[in-house]
Each structure stands twice: as C-alpha cells, then as structure tokens.
Amino acid sequence: MKTVTGMAVLCLGMCLAGCGQTTEVADLMSSSSVRVSLQQVQRAGRAEAAADGVMQQRYTFQAAAQPQIVVTPTQGTWNWHGQGELRLRVQNAMPWALTLVVDIDGADAKQHLHAVVGLPAGPAQTLVVPLHPTAPLAFGMQVGPPMPLDDRGRRVLVATTVEGALDLSAVRAVRFSMPAPQAAQSILFGKLDVVAGETALHDAYAGIVDRYGQYTRGNWPEKVADDAALRATVKQAVPAASTAGEDGYGGRLDVRLQETGWFHAQKSGGRWWLVTPDGHGFFSLGVDAVTADGGRSYVQGRETMFTDLPPDSGAWAMFWGTGDNRSAQQGAGAGRCCDHGRWFDFYAANLYRVDGQGWPAAWRTRTLARLKAWGFNTLGNWSDPALAAQHQLPYTRSVNIEGVFGNVATGYDWWGRMPDPFDPRFAQVADAAAAKAVQGVRDDPWLLGYFADNELAWAAPGPQGRWALAIGTLHGEARSDAKQAFIADLEKKYGTPDKLAAAWGISLPSWDALQATNFPAPEPGEAHPAIAADYSAWLRRYADQYFRVVSQAIRRHDPHHLFLGGRFAASTPEAIAACAEYCDVASFNVYADLPQHGFDAALAQKLDRPVLITEFQFGSDDRGPFGKGVVPVWNEAQRGHAYAKFVAAAAADPVIVGAHWFGYVDQPVAGRLLDGENSHTGLVGITDIPFAGFVETVRKTNLTLRHAASP
Q1: Residues 656 and 691 in one domain
Q2: Is residue 210 part of a domain?
Q3: What Gene3D superfamilies does this protein's entry cite (predicted)?
Q4: pTM of the model
Q5: CA-to-CA distance for 613 and 466, rounded, in angstroms?
C-alpha cells in the first residue's frame, strides 16, 4: 500500500502544554492541525460506536515489515514540557491479542521514547505511555504487574517499560506501529492527549500485594482469603512416599555397583550413575533452595505497594528485617530501586500463621514429607542445612569462595567478575572456604558432594563471547596476576613481540605494550587463526588453574565426597574440559526446553564424564507472581508437561546423572531481595500451598523415572 499523507485522519487540539492539566494532541476521529502519514495502514471510511457509546475510528495494519501511523504537527514541534503521560483511547478489533509499538520522537535521533505493549482483545481501554524512561526495576522488581488494570470500571493499559530519553519541549512525532503482522490486523483508535503527572503509572503498582504476599488483583485456585483457609489448605495430608525397590538413600536395588560407603560416580554398561554409599545406582531428582527464607521482599521506599502488613512489633517482629543488596547493581539487579532497607518475610509469616511458634520444625517435617511423596530424592543447592541434618534425603553443599583476591571482567559479570585463580590469595581463600564447607558433614554418608561457586562468567553472549575471558584478561591492569601469566605464556611461545604482532595482525612495539590497562586485544578471525589458538590455550590454562586449586582445597579437607563442579551457566569447551579433568561430576544450570539444548552434550559424551543438571525450571504467570522465569510456558498445565519432557530426556541420556528443579517456593510478587526476581516457578506458593496439578505431574514423572532409567 502507498503512503498516504493528509489532514483528514487525526486531529491535534490547538492547546499546547501549559494550558491545563490535560493537553489534547489528536482525535483519531476527526481532522484538525496535525499531519498524518499512513504507511501500510488503511483507515475505514466511517466511524464506529463502542459499547460505551464513544465513537472510534478503525485502522487496519497490513501484512508488511512495519505498518505504522505517524502523527506530526503541521508546523514545528509540540511542547509537552511539564506533562507526564501520553494517553490514547484504543480497542483491539481482533479476537486475539496484538502487539502495538509506540514511538515518540524528539527533535533529533537521540531524543526518542519507545514502548511495546500487548493489546488484549476485548472492550476499549486507555493506553498510557509515561513520557520518561521507566521499567519494573524502577519499582524494585524484574517484571511488572499484568495489564490492563481496572480503574473504577475503566480499563487502563499502562506501558510499564519505556526506553530512551526525550526532551519534552520539542516533540516531533508520535508513531504507532505493529511488528511484521502476517495478516491484516485492525485497531480502533480515539482521542490522544498528554496529561501532567504520572498517576496511571503509580496506580499500576499501588496496593498489588496483600497481607499473605499474594497479588491482589488476580485469582487462581490456590489463592486464600483468610487465615482459616490458609491453615486448612496447607495442613492437608501428604500421601506416603513410595520407596519400594530402593535402598535407604534412594538408590535402585536392581542396579548393583561398587560399594564404598560414600556417594560416588561410576560408569556401568555404557551409562554413568551416581552410586549410593550402599552401592546402588542413584538418579538424583532434587529441588534447589528448599528453605523458609525465600519470601523476603523490600518494603522500604515502596510502602504503597503493600496492603495490611502486620506490625513490626510483638510476635510479628521476627518477620521484619533490614538488608542491603546495592552491590547487585553491577549485574543482576542493575537499575533497580528499593534494594536496601526494611523488608518483610511473607513466606515465613504465613508459616507462622499456619503453625504458630513451632513453625520452623513443622515446616521441615511437612516439607520433607512432601518432597519424598513427590518423588524427589535430593536436597539441591542452597537448601536448609537443618533439613539435611535429618538424614531423610541426600543433600549437597556449596563452597562459596568469597574474599579478597584479584578478578577479571568478561563483560558478562552477572554475579560479579571472574575470580583470578593466579592470585596467590585465591588459593588461600579457597582453602578457607573448603574448610568451612566441610564442617559437620565431612564424615556424613548422606552428603552427595560439593559445588564450587555458581554461574561464573566463563564466557559472554554473542558470536565472540567464547573469547571474553581471554580478552578481559588482556584488558586488565598490569598488576593482574592473570594478565601477567597470560603475557608470560605469550612471551614463551613467540619469543619476540614482532612475532606475536605478525601472528595476531596487530602493532606491538614491545612486550611492555601488553601491560597497558585496557589493552585493545584483537578479536579472533579467519585472517589470523593464531588469535583463536592462543586464546583457547589461555582459556584452558585459566580453567585448569581454577579447578585444580579448588579441587585440591576440597580434597584436602574432605577426601570422601564428590566435587560436583561449578554449576556452569555460561561456559566454553576449554572450561568444560578442565572441569572434566578435576571434578567428579560436571554440573550445568540449564534453562532450555531440553537438557541437551542447554549444554554441550556432545562434548560431555566425548569427555566421558557424568553431568548433573543443577538448575532447570518452567514458569507461567497465572498463579500470582508476574514473571514466567527464564523458560516461560503458556500456563500452569504446560509447566507439568514441560517438566515431564525435560526430566525424561535427562534420564534417557547416558551421561546425565540427575536434574534439580529451581526452586521450592515461588518468588515474592514484589521481587526477592537479591535482584528483584518475581516469577512463578515454585512447587508451592508464597502461602506454602502446593500447586496441585503441577506437583501431581511432577510426582508421577519422578516416581516413574526413578525406576525406569536404563541400568
């Protein structure tokens, strides 16, 4: 369709910003002093009356790369100084949801606001776009509340994420587009205006969390309305666990392997197994973060989000606390508000409502009974040590290597920079961390083994991300021990700087030039294959140093138990190979539909080392929390289907020895303390009520697979 420009499509009122609280920009029903360009969009000839009697104009976006409506003033620019929100009456004319993109352009290319909104089917609503950048993180959470919201009978759809920057005194255009529709899609538009303040944005977040930590505006089967319903539902009887055909640790009696008195790994008949202390094959089905303190969320700075919170005195005082997670601003929590100060623990408070003063013991008893009934046989990482001490399920421990030593930036420092294992202080800290981790468990046969750290930044995203650690090492300061070790390797190989320069295709007048902070390390390419070869050699040496130092520390303090690796999220072939050499089991946090899609399964087969999937999850947004987690599915029922498919694929793989779900409890609606994550990925909700349909699918899957993995 040709571009149409005319004066008969939209209307811009004569009053500009400063004439009152509301400034009319355009009426998509009539014509006035605006210029409109329709690009691959058709306007209907006649207006249509909505259910409330308001007249609207139909616009049909054609199947094209980016059909759009562009609204501009006839002269100059609009001055919206002092205005806070753009509002547009809009109605999806299709029986399915549509995506509408709103762009507001300033006087130059650097001045631009961009918002993408999901436009649900149904009656007309008011679309509100804040006239400044914003995101749910600005309100302390990763994902904002669902839209539209009901504002006294009116449907209001707030764009909770707006990107860019805009000088409101010079607004050049407003554009409405649709990203590459595959068929014609129609939307009905009405009046467009701007208003002072940002009432709608704040209303979107006001009063969204009730006293139980539940989302106030939604309903789902497990939601409770009062304490009596909470107690009755949580205390429903747990079915007895099925342990037929298993030894005391959960190992299969029909898979007889070497008996050592400790958990270990063994290959038999072409398949890797974990082996119980009694010598039986064990496929680890675990749950991470089985703990009662995961329901904490910051209240300070956003008190209007919460309704009917208990007092911070008397019996309720134990559920209030203070914290500071501002250090997470460098990675996972970057850009978040409300990351320190007073918090409230919704999950623990609900446990108190159910069981009174004895809630910790009651929770542990109930939780262990549930996990066993649901077919789990392992307590995963970050779980309550008191649960492990009851010796009802095998468990894992973390060696958290935290202290003063050097580090290297890779550009993907989500949880912080990479530790520098060449710094002598690293070995000292690792030794101290291992000594601490083994306390009280060194001689416990129920301990499966130790992890070291979690999701280190071995690589970065993108096609050159594999080399990020090598490039980051050379970018570092001269005092970096890792950098000095890398330079020494290059000097040993090339002898003179001119030979390195020729191999890498760079200018290098002297070895001292490599010492410069932010040295411009080249990216590998076909023209200079030596770069990739040298970087690969360094990545392997770096990983060897890390895993060797850590493994020696662990085995120095505990020679009995397994070293379960470093819980890879980002990885390189070099790091995986080093892990396979120094670790008993390689562990991967896999966020994908199938385990083999989340780690280098072919390399694991080649290295012939067992693999433990130490995190996986599937989330939806139909049970309270707004986020769907890292691997979203459409609804609660699909969570169960996805779980069954994933675990079946894990059990069928001869190198995979287990899979651990993350995690036990839903994240708080308003975001967890660490980084504001607020997803529905739990086995139970913030009220400790199990998601019945999901856990039933989990139970059937687990019990089937614990006895069906090929011997």
Answers
A1: yes
A2: no
A3: Galactose-binding lectin (2.60.120.430), Glycosidases (3.20.20.80)
A4: 0.94
A5: 21
